[in-house]
Write a structure and sequence with these properties.
The complex is a heterodimer. Chain A is an alpha+beta fold. Chain A has 4 domains: 3-58; 65-167, Nucleic acid-binding proteins (OB fold (Dihydrolipoamide Acetyltransferase, E2P)), CATH 2.40.50.140; 174-275, Beta Barrel (OB fold (Dihydrolipoamide Acetyltransferase, E2P)); 280-419, OB fold (Dihydrolipoamide Acetyltransferase, E2P). Chain A is built from 9 helices and 24 strands. In chain A, the strands form 4 sheets. Chain A has a 5-stranded mixed β-barrel with strand order 2-3-4-6-5. A 5-stranded mixed beta barrel of chain A has the order 9-10-11-13-12. In chain A, strand 10 and strand 11 (221-227) form a beta hairpin. In chain A, helix 1 crosses helix 2 and helix 2 (23-36) packs across helix 3 (41-51). The longest helix of chain A has 14 residues, at 3-16. By secondary structure, chain B is an alpha+beta fold. Chain B has 2 domains: 1-207, Beta Barrel (OB fold (Dihydrolipoamide Acetyltransferase, E2P)), CATH 2.40.50; 230-293, Orthogonal Bundle (Arc Repressor Mutant, subunit A), CATH 1.10.10.10. Helices cover 38% and strands 24% of the residues of chain B. Chain B has helices spanning 12-15, 84-92, 129-155, 161-166, 171-184, 189-203, 230-243, 253-262, 267-279; strands spanning 7-9, 20-22, 32-34, 40-41, 43-55, 64-70, 73-79, 97-109, 115-126, 251-252, 283-284, 290-293. In chain B, helix 3 packs antiparallel against helix 6 (189-203) and helix 7 crosses helix 9. The chains are: A alpha+beta, B alpha+beta.
């Protein structure tokens, strides 16, 4: 955004902040947030106002419009929605290093349903009751509408009656393979074989509960499941679960067998196949699903990222540290470690991957011992990454591990790594036969 | 979540025939170069022989230019100030040698409207011949896959993006193919077939049978950035005439063109070089279609 586009917002800020801050200062601040850090305008203005101590109410925001859920476009900055709460729960999240309780669930009206999130713990909403959600902002995630209540949002009880259409009550289950599960999916049916199951005692909002969790698999992948009721699940049996819902942890899909879910024993369609194996995926598939357990991929190493080579860790918490100071434990005597953060690309997609010391040593021939003595001799540790780069770039690797996602995209924590040998002549002959066959 | 842009394996022949740029309307979103086969390129992975390199900056702030040749033509790379790793590699690598480059596609439009494609490297790696061959295989596979997808798309009558998505194309592929068809029209499939075939034959010397497809692979300009290069062509052609001399008639043009193509020279370059040799008085045509060194 250029200066001209920023100016009206700067003037608005100036007014709100009652001229406590100069226009130039505001322009620089706003420019930094919006252009340098890519923060959206509303958040940037809010941040600047907080920084300089302005009042929230001074903000000029358009009057909220009232909309039905079915009419939401997915980008409304300020709407009022009257809807019935279909489902609600409080969740603990960690945001900017702080634990926070938020409220999330599903709300519905006669035109449809949407998930909602209230970014505070200041309400106790009742399932089945009707509320007006004032000053909500709307986003989409995975093509689904999400109603968000930020600091401007207010939830009030409403006397309106809302009739939900039939379809939102009779949830139809969509069948999915385990490899196709994605965070945020609801009402899915999955057939899989249980690889492991265990009973765990957990505390959910002050209540002790038993959860039955483990791993299940089909011929496309593995997924962790949690059953919130006792279905007497046994290792080795094949089950069909209907109305399961998928939550995610860092992009790794997790299958939840909840109150509405049904479990039935079915004939095993997988035959004698061993399902406790790593599933091969293209990097496009991995990027699209965002994560998963025990995945095998192959591709070329196209980049060695910063943070690779010789690094230092806190001896107490094992976090990587810079300058001998740990954010948690202060001044420490750091221990050496070796790792690589690479980008693997197979032409269909690309993901990041982290390889530990053992794998780094195996693939590059550079040992931790060598690295420490070389960096001491040179008086700098950056030399190691430069030594490693030509030994790993453009190598073809097969990697196995779990893939999770953060704001930088999918990343594999690698458990096994090998160079991949390709029989070029054989592959070229095969392709040439196809090509010449098509002429 | 921002997925990283995939590094497309693409031959120079396809890259240099591209002129359609899709600039993003949103800020900080990537822009793309669409190839005639419908690949939406932002990042590419190329490999070949580094033909020459030149530092157009200073010792302290080097700006490297270079030319990399694959089986179908040349890639032009420009390493700027903000790619220190690539610049450091460029300083160390001697031409000629095999290199692989991962980088972003850039275009430059000349006064006459022609679009030239260059690559801004993120990494430049010195590789061995095997790794180069592996790249050729991947690029051949990738080009072939695009040809097949394009062919499948053309079977859908008057297809729009959504029609292709409904037929099972990914959103990206559908978008690239439709954009390419709107801009370039139906691609010359024989050119790309030949390209894939030539590259695979380079890997399989035993399979060198000429199937009589048109030879005009490289419609790419060769003069951008680094200037004239008839010198090398002349040298190559002269050595060829001497090595393959069959007596009175010298060497037949068919043989010359075939050998030249194997070495990445286009028919135009051969003609240019043979004209230059004759001008210099180093060769003559004993008969139409034959060339002999003096």
């Amino acid at each position: 955004m250029n200066k001209e586009e920023l100016t009206p917002h700067v003037e608005e800020l100036k007014r709100v902040l009652e001229e406590k801050v100069t226009e130039k200062e505001l322009m620089d601040e706003l420019d930094k947030y919006v252009n340098e850090y890519g923060v959206d305008m509303e958040s940037a203005k809010r941040a600047i106002r907080r920084k300089f101590g302005g009042e929230e109410s001074g903000f000029v925001t358009g009057n909220a419009v009232s909309k039905k859920i079915g009419d939401l476009a997915g980008n409304e900055p300020n709407v009022d929605i009257t809807a019935r709460v279909v489902y609600v729960e409080k969740k603990q999240i960690r945001a900017r290093g702080e634990d926070k309780t938020i409220i999330s669930g599903i709300l519905g009206d006669d035109t449809g349903t949407a998930s909602f999130t209230i970014w505070s713990d200041s309400y106790d909403l009742e399932k089945g009751s009707v509320y007006i959600f004032k000053n909500a902002y709307i986003k989409t995630w995975n093509d689904r509408i999400q109603v968000n209540m930020g600091s401007r949002g207010v939830v009030e009880k409403s006397d309106a009656t809302i009739d939900l259409p039939e379809r939102t009550i009779s949830y139809t289950s969509v069948e999915s393979k385990i490899g196709g599960l994605k965070e945020g999916m609801g009402n899915v049916s999955v057939t899989g074989r249980i690889l492991s199951v265990e009973e765990r005692n957990v505390n959910v909002r002050g209540e002790d509960k038993i959860v039955y969790s483990g791993l299940m698999a089909d011929d496309t992948g593995k997924v962790q499941f949690s059953a919130w009721n006792d279905h007497n699940l046994k290792e080795g049996e094949t089950i069909l679960i209907t109305n399961a819902y998928i939550r995610g942890w860092k992009g790794i899909p997790q299958l939840n067998i909840g109150d509405r879910s049904e479990v039935s024993r079915v004939d095993d369609p997988f035959g004698s196949a061993d399902l406790d194996i790593s599933s091969n995926k293209t990097l496009r598939e991995v990027s699209e699903s965002g994560g998963g357990l025990d995945i095998t991929v192959s591709g070329l190493v196209v980049d060695l990222r910063g943070g690779s080579g010789l690094i230092f860790r806190c001896p107490q918490c094992n976090r990587s540290v810079l300058g001998g100071e740990c954010t948690n434990h202060g001044k420490i005597d750091p221990v050496h470690d070796l790792r690589m953060k690479i980008v693997l690309d197979d032409g269909s997609g690309a993901i990041g991957a982290v390889l530990n010391r053992e794998l780094t040593e195996k693939l590059t021939g550079v040992t931790l011992e060598n690295a420490v003595s070389l960096s001491k001799a040179r008086g700098e540790s950056g030399i190691i990454a430069r030594e490693i780069a030509p030994k790993i770039l453009m190598k073809r690797l097969v990697l196995r591990g779990n893939v999770m996602s953060d704001e930088y995209g999918p990343m594999m924590i690698v458990s096994e790594a090998d160079t991949e040998e390709v029989d070029i002549e054989k592959a070229a002959t095969k392709l040439l036969d196809v090509v010449e066959g098509a002429l | 979540m921002n997925a990283r842009e995939t590094a497309w394996r693409v031959f120079a022949g396809e890259l240099n025939s591209s002129s359609l740029e899709i600039k993003s309307e949103e800020e900080k979103s990537p822009s793309y170069l669409v190839t005639p086969l419908g690949a939406k390129l932002n990042r590419i992975l190329i490999a070949g022989v580094l033909l020459d390199k030149e530092n157009t900056g200073t010792e302290e702030e080097p700006m490297w230019r270079g030319r990399i040749q694959d089986v179908s033509g040349n890639f032009f790379i420009n390493v700027g100030r903000f790619q220190p790793n690539a610049a450091a590699s460029m300083a160390d690598i001697e031409a000629p040698s095999y290199v692989a480059v991962v980088g972003k596609v850039r275009t430059y439009t000349a006064d006459d409207g022609r679009v030239f494609v260059t690559v801004r490297p993120e990494t430049v790696t010195n590789i061995d011949e095997r790794t180069r061959n592996l790249w050729v295989l991947e690029a051949a596979q990738s080009t072939w896959d695009r040809l097949v997808r394009m062919k499948d798309a053309l079977r859908v009558q008057n297809a729009g993006r959504q029609d292709l998505v409904n037929k099972g194309f990914s959103q990206e592929d559908a978008d690239g193919i439709i954009s390419a068809l709107e801009h370039y029209g139906i691609p010359e499939s024989s050119k790309y077939l030949k390209l894939v075939q030539n590259s695979l034959r380079m890997l399989l010397p035993d399979r060198n049978i000429d199937l009589g497809l048109p030879e005009d692979i490289a419609d790419a300009p060769d003069e951008i950035v680094l200037g004239e290069d008839t010198g090398k062509g002349k040298e190559f052609l002269l050595s060829l005439l001497e090595a393959m001399d069959m007596g009175e008639l010298g060497v037949s043009m068919d043989v010359i063109l075939k050998k030249a193509a194997e070495n990445g020279m286009s028919p135009e370059e051969v003609e240019e070089a043979s004209d230059a040799l004759m001008d210099d008085g180093l060769a003559y045509e004993p008969k139409v279609g034959f060339l002999k060194a003096i």
